[in-house]
Amino acid sequence: MPSKSLLALAATLAACALTLPAQQPAPQPLEAMPYSPSLDVTSLDRTIDPCQDFYKFSCGGWEKNNPIPADQAGWSVYAKLANENQQFLWGILEDDAKAPTGPSSTPRTPVQQKVGDYFAACMNTAAIDAAGDKPIEPALAEIDALKTRAEIIAALPRLHHEYAGSFFFGSGTGQDAIDSSTVIVELAAGGLGLPDRDYYTKTDPKSVKLRQQYTAYIQQLLALTGESADQAKADADATLHIETALANASLTRVQRRDPHNTYHMETIAELAKIAPSIDWPLYFKVQGAPGVEKLNVSQPDFIKAVEAELSTEDVAALRGYLRFHLLTSAASYLAHPYEQASFDFYSTTLRGVPAMPPRWKTCTRAVDRNLGEALGQEFVRRTFGADTKAKTQLMTEQIETAMQHEIETLPWMSDATKAEALRKLHAIRNKIGYPNKWRDYSALNVKADDYFGDVQRSYRFEDARRWNKLGKPVDRDEWGMTPPTVNAYFSPQMNDINFPAGVLQPPLYDPKEDDAPNYGNTGATIGHELTHAFDDEGRQFDAKGDLRDWWTPDDAKGFEDRINCVRDQYAGYVIVDDIHINSKLTSGEDVADIGGTLLAYIAWKKQTEGQTLNSADGFTPDQRFFVGMAQWACENQRPENLRVSAITNPHSPGFARINGVVSNMPEFQQAFHCKAGQPMVHTPTCRVW
């Protein structure tokens, strides 16, 4: 049950992969996806009292039977389905990569040619390794030729335009928070090589050691290009110094949850006063947006820190920083030594992953990432039927009806705020399965013998597509996830909920199963995304998707009092070691979990009203609903990955997302006969919606 979006919608999206058997599995046959039941009794641990630990009761067997594969930081029901989808896509790509060989062969469609050739180029590791670092040599030479501060600053517009590296800051386009019908230019914080600002500011022994390991990675990557050991160390130390300065000026993730903290409209002249070293009109002209007059500077203090670094840092240090960020952004697409170095730090050191994934996974993900809606057409055609879409749409409408009733009967909300909430609810658009109109990739040149070139051209294609939105109406049909993605999201500025075809597959959703586990699982996911429209961030946007305060002061206080109950509860859960959930970061997701499950339960009861429901697998229908809900969250996580998640992930770990929900639901407690004082009966009951 995922998340929402604002400046970087990509920050809310995710997926995973599978076991490495002695022999790689064959690509999934193209005819059908694998079938598995929605309620998996083998995942249960019946030795656990459900009123003591419902997550363990529902998922204890799953945890024992599903060790983390060697190429994964964690393993979960979502990750397994993502892997099955990837294996299915692999089969598609293997077929599409085969060029017609004879006069009777069926020609590939333009879509099949692009996804097939991209996949073939990625799979050709012999050619990639033979090229070494030649694909990146011209860019490195360009940086090496920068001898003065003025030359380094003047190079930034081109570096941002040509390469995917995070050079000091980020820029792009997005919806205006105040007027969601308008596309504006946005300037964002960036330039860090570690996952979050906190990695630079924390002083505990693990954080100190990790920074040492990070500088060792920087040195290793630079040494691969031929830098001397002394020069590589100097550049690594300088890079860490620069990034630490940028991190200290960055907002925390909790601060960024308040959209007011990241909305600062400035004129180009005002921006020039903050950072006079950069020729901003020229910068935006190079990006493809000449004549920009105003923009959102999301973090002005951060841009001031960029200016300070560009103005005062040693020129050689700035050059070393640029070299590293160019290399680290390209490493995964270069010869094996570069790819291995990147994997060793970002996957093994940071997240505890011992082994690289098989190449087919890497390449399938690459195609999905860069040609997602082209590949998505192939996926949807084979997997997503009209029946699934219609049933999901019906379930969504039923859950929205439940939400309407909940809003209308809330005892703590005034009629004035209720009217605005209902207006917003009725304006939400439901996007299910795939886009109404597929993205056009005809301008993207894909070559079967030029993987790094394909990567670069894909970056430039997408960058140009985003900048080209300026001056045009917001495309409210656009998706922020590809159709095969096992995830879902709510967009506060689009005011829509989005469920890709990839997440509407067994075991998460199974049209052949009975309603109880389907509503418990997929229904709760739908309710989760719907509730995001009214969480601590989403509630600040109105029916149009504009950032506007539509709450009375008393109602806003009532909301905060109730969400603080949730925050207090979840702050008591330990993630790993002695690290507790940062409930100010996770509260939006926690509230959505609780509210979404309640909405799904109400909708399920309405759907089955008047029916005679039978017990199955030793469970009553109500119990099947809750077990179905819990089993989407079954997971195993490496401790290293849990430490990263504690800092960066706005979602609580799986056990908390289940136990935290059911302990606040009298409906669950009645179904399993839980009594006051047991762990699954939280006092006081926390409920917002």
What does this protein look like?
The protein is an alpha+beta fold and 689 residues long. It contains 27 helices and 11 strands. It has helices spanning 54-65, 77-96, 110-123, 125-131, 137-144, 149-162, 198-201, 205-224, 229-248, 253-256, 268-274, 280-287, 300-312, 315-330, 336-351, 359-370, 372-383, 386-409, 415-427, 451-467, 515-531, 553-570, 583-607, 621-630, 639-648, 654-662, 666-672; strands at 74-76, 169-175, 183-189, 265-267, 294-297, 429-433, 489-491, 496-500, 574-576, 579-580, 635-637. The strands form 4 sheets. The chain has a 4-stranded mixed sheet. Strands 6-8-7 form a 3-stranded mixed sheet, with helices on one face. Strand 9 (574-576) and strand 10 (579-580) form a beta hairpin. The radius of gyration is 25 Å and the shape is globular. The two termini are 17 Å apart. The relative contact order is 0.15.
Characteristic key phrases:
disordered N terminus; alpha+beta; single chain; 27 helices; 689 residues
Summarize the main sheet: 4 strands, mixed
- Which parts are unreliable, with pLDDT below 50 for 5 consecutive residues or more? 1-24, 29-37
What best-fitting shape do the alpha-carbon axes yield?
globular
Which structural category do the helix and sheet elements fall into? alpha+beta
Distance between the termini: 17 Å
Q: Bin the helical content.
A: 40-55%
Q: Radius of gyration, Cα only, in angstroms?
A: 25 Å
Tally of contiguous helical segments: 27
Instruction: Please count the beta strands (DSSP E, at least 2 residues each).
Output: 11
Strand content: 5-15%
Q: Quick check: average pLDDT?
A: 93
Q: What spatial order of strands do you see in the largest sheet?
A: 2-3-5-4
